[in-house]
From TrEMBL:
Keywords annotated in UniProt: Coiled coil, Hydrolase
Record protein name field: PPM-type phosphatase domain-containing protein
SMART domains: PP2C_SIG
Superkingdom as given in the UniProt entry: Bacteria
One Pfam family here: SpoIIE
Domain PPM-type phosphatase residues, every copy: 197-416
Coiled coil residues, start to end: 135-172
Length: 433
C-alpha cells in the first residue's frame, strides 16, 4: 500500500535548499538519526543540481509504502532526461532505479527502509508531514505569482488603465514595505554589539538581503571570566523571519531562559529549542551556533543545531580546525540533549562564525559555489590593508555578478591575542581538521 505525502517542484536553484531542508525534517521525523538525515538530504540536493541541468527538471514525489510489513520511504523524480546515478545515492538508499517512461519522461526511484519509526503512523502524524512538505518556498510562491500575472495580462488587456492605477498603488505599497524592511535591517544591525579590541578582539559584517533574512548574532561577557558568542539563522525571508531572530537573540542577550546556565551551551540550546518551536512560530526553523569562552583556562566550549562549522585558524595556519555542531535544526523536534565540544585556544588564533548566506552563492554562470570552495578561499591570505570579511564579501558579489546577495551576509571574526602563559595547549576531542 502506498500513501502519498506530497511533492516538490524543481524549477530553479532554490529547489536545492528546499529539498535539502524538507527531506532532512522528514527523515528525522521518521526516526533516522541526524547523521543519516544529513547524508540523505545532501545526496538529494546533489541530485537536484543535476536535474536542474535538464530542459525540464520536473518534480520530486514523496511516498510512504507498506511492503510486506516493512515501512519504506519512497522518493520518485520525474524529469525530461536521464541523469547519472552517483555512488553516493546507492550508498544511502536501499534501492535505486532509473526507468524510462516513454520518450519524454524519465523516472528515478529511490527507496529507504524505515527501521526505527518513533511512535505510530497516526493520521495526525501523516497530515503534519504532508503540511511540512507542501509548505511552499519563497521561490515557488514567486513562480506562482509570475504565472498569475501573465494570465492577468492575457485576460485583462482591455483594462490597461485600471492596471496602471493598480500598479501605482502597488508601487506605493512596495515603497512602504521597503521602507519597513530597511528599518528592520537597521534595527537588527543595532542589536549587534560594537566591535571590540584587546586581548579578545571581535569584528563583524552584517549586510541584509533585499528581502531581509533571519540572521542575528552577538557576543557579551556573562561574568568577568566567561564570554558568550552566538549566531543564528531563521529560515525564510521577510519581517516574520527577522522578528523571530530578534526575539531569540534578545532572550540570549538578556539571559532570560529560566533554569538555564548560560555558561553551558547544551542547556541554552535545549531551552531555546523548547521555547521557540516551529508550531508556535509560523513553521519557522532556525540554525544556531553558541559558544562560551572561559578566559582563565582559554577554553572554548560550543554546541549548536543545524549550523555550518565555525572555522578556527591557529597561529599562521592555512588549514582551519572545524568546530562543528551536531544537533538538529532548531525548533523542529524535541531534543533531550545537545552535545558540546571544547578546545583550548592557542594564541594568536582567529575564529570565524557565519551563516550560510556567506557561502551558498548562486554564481553568475548558473553554478553554485561549494562549501569546500568557500573554505579554500578562507584559507588564502588577505590582501594588504584588507580584512578577510571584506575580502570575502567583495569576492562573493563578483561570483554572483550582483551588488546585493540573495541572503543575509553575516559573519563574526574573533581574534585571540592572549598573553603567554606556562603549560601545554591541547586540542579538544570534539574539534576536527
Amino acid at each position: 500500500m502506498r500513501t502519498h505525502l506530497g511533492d516538490i517542484r524543481i524549477f530553479d536553484q532554490s529547489a536545492v535548499v528546499e529539498v535539502r531542508t524538507k527531506v532532512f525534517s522528514l527523515t528525522t521525523a521518521f526516526g533516522f538519526g541526524s547523521a543519516m538525515s544529513t547524508r540523505i538530504a545532501t545526496t538529494l540536493s546533489d541530485l537536484v543540481r543535476q536535474l536542474l541541468q535538464n530542459s525540464e527538471p520536473g518534480s520530486m514525489f514523496v511516498d510512504l509504502e507498506d511492503a510486506q510489513g516493512q515501512l519504506i520511504l519512497g522518493l520518485r523524480f520525474l524529469t525530461s532526461e536521464a541523469v547519472q546515478i552517483t555512488p553516493a545515492l546507492r550508498e544511502v538508499f536501499d534501492d535505486v532505479r532509473q526507468l524510462s517512461n516513454g520518450e519524454a519522461v524519465k523516472e528515478i526511484t529511490l527507496r529507504k527502509t524505515i527501521r526505527n519509526m518513533p511512535g505510530s503512523l497516526t493520521p495526525e502524524f501523516l497530515d503534519f508531514q504532508r503540511d511540512r512538505i507542501s509548505l511552499k518556498s519563497r521561490a515557488a510562491l514567486v513562480e506562482e505569482l509570475r504565472e498569475k500575472n501573465q494570465q492577468l495580462e492575457r485576460y485583462n488587456a482591455h483594462l490597461e488603465e485600471l492596471v496602471r492605477e493598480r500598479t501605482k498603488e502597488l508601487e506605493l505599497t512596495n515603497h512602504r514595505m521597503q521602507r519597513d524592511l530597511d528599518a528592520g535591517a537597521e534595527y537588527v544591525a543595532r542589536l549587534i554589539p560594537e566591535p571590540i579590541t584587546g586581548q579578545i578582539s571581535i569584528d563583524w559584517r552584517y549586510v541584509p538581503s533585499e528581502e531581509l533574512g533571519g540572521d542575528a548574532m552577538g557576543y557579551h561577557w556573562l561574568d568577568p571570566d566567561h564570554m558568550a558568542i552566538y549566531l543564528l539563522d531563521v529560515t525564510g525571508h521577510g519581517i516574520d523571519s527577522a522578528l523571530l531572530a530578534v526575539s531569540i537573540i534578545n532572550v540570549v542577550r538578556g539571559a532570560s531562559l529560566p533554569g538555564a546556565d548560560f555558561r553551558n551551551p547544551s542547556e541554552v540550546l535545549k531551552q531555546l529549542n523548547q521555547s521557540f518551536t516551529m508550531d508556535l512560530h509560523g513553521n519557522k526553523l532556525y540554525t544556531m551556533w553558541y559558544g562560551v569562552f572561559h578566559r582563565p583556562s582559554r577554553t572554548l566550549t560550543w554546541g549548536g543545531g543545524g549550523h555550518p562549522d565555525a572555522l578556527l585558524y591557529v597561529n599562521d595556519s592555512r588549514e582551519p580546525i572545524r568546530l562543528a555542531s551536531g544537533g538538529p535544526l532548531m525548533g523542529m523536534i524535541d531534543w533531550p540533549h545537545f552535545e558540546t565540544d571544547s578546545i583550548v585556544i592557542e594564541s594568536p588564533s582567529s575564529l570565524f562564525l557565519y551563516s550560510d548566506g556567506v557561502f551558498e552563492i548562486h554564481k553568475e554562470d548558473g553554478g553554485e559555489w561549494t562549501f569546500d570552495e568557500f573554505v579554500d578561499f578562507m584559507n588564502m591570505s588577505v590582501p594588504k590593508g584588507d580584512t578577510k570579511m571584506d575580502d570575502l564579501y567583495r569576492y562573493v558579489r563578483e561570483l554572483c555578478g550582483c551588488e546585493q546577495l540573495g541572503d543575509d551576509f553575516s559573519i563574526l571574526e574573533i581574534r585571540f591575542n592572549l598573553p603567554d602563559e606556562p603549560g601545554n595547549v591541547v586540542q579538544g576531542a570534539g574539534a576536527s581538521i
